[in-house]
Amino acid sequence: MNETEPSCIFVCPDRLYEGYVFDLDGTIYLGENRLPGAKRLVEKLRELSKKVVFLSNNPTKDPKMYAEKLTRLGLPTSEDEVVNTVVTMTRWLLQNHPEATVFPISEEPLKRSLREAGIRMSERAEEIDIVIASYDRRFEYRKLQIAFDAIWLHKRARLVTTNPDPYCPLPGGRGEPDAAAIVGAIEACTGARCEVNVGKPDPIMLETVLGMLELEASECVMTGDRLYTDVRMALDAGMPSAVVLTGETTAEILATERDENKPDWVLDRIDRLLPSQMW
After folding, report:
1. Whether 90 contacts 113, CB under 8 Å
2. Would you identify the CATH topology of the domain 96-197?
3. How many CB atoms within 10 Å of residue 8?
4. pLDDT value for 90
């Protein structure tokens, strides 16, 4: 699409905000490909001294890894500009259950963060206080059994999750099962219910981001590709929001959604966040 005024089917902001919060997968990039307009937008916002934070529910990387990927894709980024569920889960445990013994069903970035924070981990079901269901591409029956024993047999562990996403979008219309699939497996066999989610749309993640930005929710814009995480979090907080149709949400999905679940703006590409007079 040429860099001209957007079609009337899209709704774009007519002003700039002080802070910009961006989802990553499906919003800034898809796989190893930067999405159209991302570089132009981020460079312009930084030029205008706007605050930018990148946000992800994906716990398979830590902030350093995300910063390195964004830099590799042409968007130089520091670790302190990235928040993901590795950060929020570690923060939540330290603030609420610093003495707990946890069993993370997760990949290495979360385990490494927990170790560095001094949080005790164990696979001994009888001493586990919290089972963390996360995105784990090495999930196996052995891990499910440990979670089952900790929750159902010993009746001591609580179930929490890094994020509620059913799948992670991949290029070419594909996807990978995400943390919700693991939560579902544990809930199905134990009868327990997941008590805490530290990813979007939970306020835990938003509080972390707003603290970094040192701004009120009304001074920021949340932009992502998912209505039930990115947009839902913004709506619940009174934060202006935009959905970009480069990831999960399509025009067809949006057309059938109830008005109370829709964002302020609908974008065909991420740089439509810039007011029309700047195009």
Report:
1. yes
2. Rossmann fold (3.40.50)
3. 6
4. 96
